[in-house]
Amino acid sequence: xxxxxxxxxxxxxxxxxxxxxxxxxxxxxxxxxxxxxxxxxxxxxxxxxxxxxxxxxxxxxxxxxxxxxxxxxxxxxxxxxxxxxxxxxxxxxxxxxxxxxxxxxxxxxxxxxxxxxxxxxxxxxxxxxxxxxxxxxxxxxxxxxxxxx
Length: 149
Ligand SMILES: [Zn+2]
Ligand SMILES: [Zn+2]
Description:
- By secondary structure, this protein is an alpha+beta fold.
- About 50% of the residues lie in helices and about 20% in strands.
- It folds into 2 domains: about 90 residues, Arc Repressor Mutant, subunit A (Orthogonal Bundle), CATH 1.10.10; about 60 residues, 2-Layer Sandwich (Dna Ligase, domain 1), CATH 3.30.1490.190.
- The strands form 2 sheets. The protein has a 3-stranded mixed beta sheet with strand order 4-3-5, with no helix packed on it.
- The N and C termini lie far apart (about 40 Å).
- Bound molecules: zinc ion (2 copies).
- The site of one zinc ion has 5 residues, from strand 3.
């Protein structure tokens, strides 16, 4: 984890961003989580260390602009997850409307189909697709089982 923190530190230093201990702490949160976190979630995890909500927002903004984390907008909420080191390229999400949990859907076939679709769009519309965010909504397995009982 520490070598990953210092790699991120190098990236940011190269762009003249100073990495304070608070910012490093926030980076550790993203490195240690495979969840999709709202800024408030991050704040809950670091506030005991005296880190303020504006610092969380500012750090998330820096990390996002440097492609270290990825933003997922769902409705009026924004979630963030680690992008660097995650090895995930095309991304499909499923959000449960009952419990609010967000899952990554790791389906190779689906991803290949999406790559096909994006390359068709690229040639048809003469554009270059850099990213794709897809969010499916519904009820997760856990909540589905609960509603039956
Ligand atoms: Zn659910
Ligand atoms: Zn995700």
